[in-house]
Write a structure and sequence with these properties.
heterodimer; A: alpha/beta; six-stranded mixed β-sheet; four-stranded antiparallel β-sheet; 7 helices; B: alpha+beta; Alpha-Beta Plaits; 2 domains
């Protein structure tokens, strides 16, 4: 699914985000990427989303080389990926339904299919009854679940999450992680960047540990 | 390491986007008809969304359209006025007459035969003869020099034939004048087209002025649309970033703004048409009164339906192009952060 071969990211100001990173992720895996602030977690996610390009090595996502991908191909690559952000990135002038429907509208699905899929996604995150409400009317945890529903509504092959529990209390964080595990059981590869080691340890999944852009650990958490 | 797989989970190929192909090429993707309908629905949604955003701020949208309408109506209004003046000039030119002065010794019979000969010419609409005596009477009435003229040994004024041509082309008029001057018994033929030439020169200058003004105002209009769309883009920056992150193409991002530009243009086009129709109607009262003083039934033409329709289409196109330029310029800056 994902293949990093000696992937490096060096910025024009000389800062090195990643040093010759190599690892592979199989389809359907659930893994964490952890490390302190500045370790390179966000850089890794940005490379996978083609928001940045590697400056060295080979990075393949579903067989596509992200170093040579054209700008026109990027939207179609991103349609294979679901993204969950720490700050949710919801659109506050749209209802919960419309927020979740956005990826499907972009895919060009018809209204009936969109309605069915959005309600299924909201049901999966236990927010079916909030479909017509606006994000501002929801709690932080509920907003995060709307973000997750939006990330999975188009059934992506890969789900990326950047500190998805960063703003949540431990009970809510565990609940959100449970949602991710449910999604993973449906066959979606899940990659979560987090520095919450206690939470990661409880989940017992594969964990990549980064330090100053280098991979210093790759094994099961806990 | 390995994930626990749900036996009921869909295979990767059953997932949207899992094949890495465009939606219309997926194994389980919609067929062409469904995809086309969805594409139409997407356009309809963009149009409705743009309309909703414009009507949400009615005053702002109205004034933006009004500014565009004024910019559109200025050159269009001037152009319509010029075509009206050209029409008036044309009718005056058609009324141009050639005065054919006969030799002093031409007899009354010769004058009459000349009048008939000239009337047969193909470029002649009408002829009217003025005898030497009639010319003298008219001159005495107009100048008040009756006593002085009566003391002259003989009438110094020649007989005149006033020729009304049926052509308006200056070259043809000049050729006719020369032909008339060459007739035996004719002393001189005079055609006064200087004022027509001056009017034509002024109208040509006016045409150039309107063209220059049009170019400037079209540029101003593109700037107005571009700036308005830029503000809309700024207001929707967060939304655009999210759309790009979840796989929205540049075309998808661009579409609602293009509709918005076209809608601004549509509103501005109709407003400009209204402005021009009312403006010309308002001016017409004064023009009719002035023309009446010169025994003319001249009146300004309104905005022809064809011109009005072209104005609206042009405005929509300008709105669309202005929006396109604005979005193209700002789209690059809207990469997700």
């Amino acid at each position: 699914m994902i293949r990093f071969d000696q992937v490096a990211k060096r910025y024009p100001n000389g800062h090195v985000g990643l040093h010759e990173l190599s690892f592979r992720v199989r389809r359907g895996e659930f893994l964490f990427v952890t490390g302190h602030s500045g370790a390179g977690k966000s850089t890794l996610l940005r490379l996978l989303l083609a928001m940045e390009r590697p400056t060295g090595g080979k990075l393949l996502l579903a067989g596509q080389d992200l170093a040579t991908i054209t700008n026109a191909q990027i939207p179609f690559l991103r349609r294979q990926i679901g993204v969950v952000f720490q700050n949710h990135q919801l659109l506050f002038d749209r209802s919960v339904f419309d927020n979740v429907a956005l990826p499907l509208q972009i895919l060009g699905l018809n209204k009936r299919d969109i309605g069915q899929r959005v309600m299924t996604a909201l049901e999966r995150v236990s927010l079916k009854d909030k479909a017509l409400q606006f994000p501002a009317d929801l709690s932080t945890g509920q907003q995060q679940r709307v973000g997750i529903a939006r990330a999975v509504v188009h059934k992506p092959a890969l789900l990326l999450a950047d500190e998805p529990t960063g703003n949540l209390d431990p009970r809510l964080a565990a609940e959100i992680m449970g949602v991710f595990e449910d999604i993973n059981r449906l066959g979606t590869t899940v990659l979560i960047a987090s520095h919450d080691l206690a939470l990661i340890a409880r989940m017992r999944h594969r964990m990549l540990t980064l330090q100053r852009g280098r991979l210093i650990g790759d094994g099961e958490a806990g | 390491m390995s994930a626990k797989q749900d036996p009921a989970a869909p295979k990767p190929a059953e997932r949207v986007g899992a094949t890495g192909q465009r939606p219309d090429k997926q194994d389980d993707g919609p067929d062409f008809k469904t995809f086309f309908n969805a594409w139409l629905e997407s356009h309809r949604a963009s149009l409705v969304d743009s309309l909703r955003r414009l009507t949400k701020q009615p005053i702002g949208s109205f004034f933006t359209s009004l500014v565009m309408a004024v910019a559109l109506s200025l050159p269009m209004g001037l152009s319509l006025l010029l075509s009206n003046v050209e029409r008036l000039g044309g009718s005056w030119q058609r009324a141009a007459q050639i005065s054919v002065y006969l030799d002093l010794d031409a007899s009354a019979q010769r004058s009459e035969s000349l009048r008939e000969e000239i009337a047969q010419l193909p470029d002649v609409e009408d002829v009217r003869g003025i005898s030497r005596e009639e010319a003298l009477d008219e001159f005495q009435q107009q100048t008040g020099l009756g006593q002085a003229l009566r003391e002259l040994p003989e009438n110094p004024l020649p007989g005149v034939i006033i020729v009304t041509p049926n052509v308006i082309d200056k070259a043809k008029l000049d050729a006719l004048r020369q032909q008339l001057e060459g007739l035996p018994g004719v002393d001189q033929a005079q055609l006064d087209l200087l004022w027509v030439e001056r009017l034509t020169a002024i109208l040509n200058l006016g045409d150039r002025f309107v063209f220059g003004l049009t170019v400037l105002l079209v540029m101003a209009l593109l700037l107005v649309v571009g700036n308005t769309i830029r503000l809309h883009i700024e207001n929707r920056r967060a939304e655009i970033e999210v759309i790009k992150l979840v796989g929205g193409t540049d075309g998808y991002v661009r579409r609602p703004f293009l509709y918005m530009g076209a809608l601004y243009g549509l509103a501005a086009g109709f407003l400009a048409w209204l402005l021009l129709a009312f403006g010309l109607d308002w001016l017409n009262d004064a023009v009719v009164r002035l023309a009446g003083l010169y025994d003319s039934a001249f009146a300004l033409d309104g905005v022809p339906a064809g011109d009005g329709f072209s104005l609206v289409c042009g405005a929509v196109l300008l709105g669309y192009v202005g929006a396109w330029l604005a979005v193209a310029r700002h789209l690059r800056e809207l990469a997700p952060r």
